[in-house]
Write a structure and sequence with these properties.
With 208 residues, this protein is α/β, with parallel strands linked by helices. It is built from eight helices and five strands; from the N terminus they run E-H-E-H-E-H-E-E-H-H-H-H-H. It has two domains: 8-128, Resolvase, N-terminal catalytic domain (Rossmann fold, 3-Layer(aba) Sandwich), CATH 3.40.50.1390; 140-206, Arc Repressor Mutant, subunit A. It has a five-stranded mixed sheet with strand order 2-1-3-4-5, with helices on one face. The radius of gyration is 19 Å and the shape is globular.
Amino acid sequence: MNTDTLHTDTIKDNVFAYIRVSTSSQCTDSQLVEMPKEAQVTVEHGVSGTVPAKERPELSRLLDKLRRNDTLYVWWVDRLGRDYNDVETIMRELLHRGVCIKTINQCLTFAYTGNDMQDMTTNIQITMLTAMASAERQNRLASAEAGRQAIKANPELWSEKFKGRKADTKLHDAIISKLSEGLSIRKTAEQLGCNPSTVQRVKKQTLG
């Protein structure tokens, strides 16, 4: 695992970005290209979102750096983690520290203002979004397990259904990788040069 600090010609001390991919084979380009050019970018390869934030080497070091008035960019809250209790705790700790958190996907900004009602609304947003990220992961796991059990229960049926069709496993894996990074079906299709219907079919078969 390593930290990649990019765009060094225009770095500002108070702008940071964190990028995470779950496997070492996944590409970070789709997240990186959207980050502000002035950001100091920390990249974490091959780390599951279920690993607590403070136990990830690169994110842990980044968290130690962040101070009041700093801005942290992430593609989406699930890059900080998939366990909603852990992510909610980390986000609130940073906000209490005076750090502003911005997401590229959906263009959301999280910051405490000192106004009780506004900060309460921010807390509600964090709770909802982190819970959704955790639930999304659980649904994907359940769908994958259901698929495995269906094949195990009736392997002949599944063998016949896909007889004569040779799956493009490389494209399939690339599609799942892009979708897991938060790309839309349309963007995934554009980047991989395939039809949106192909992306939709792979998403439905694999992620449910």
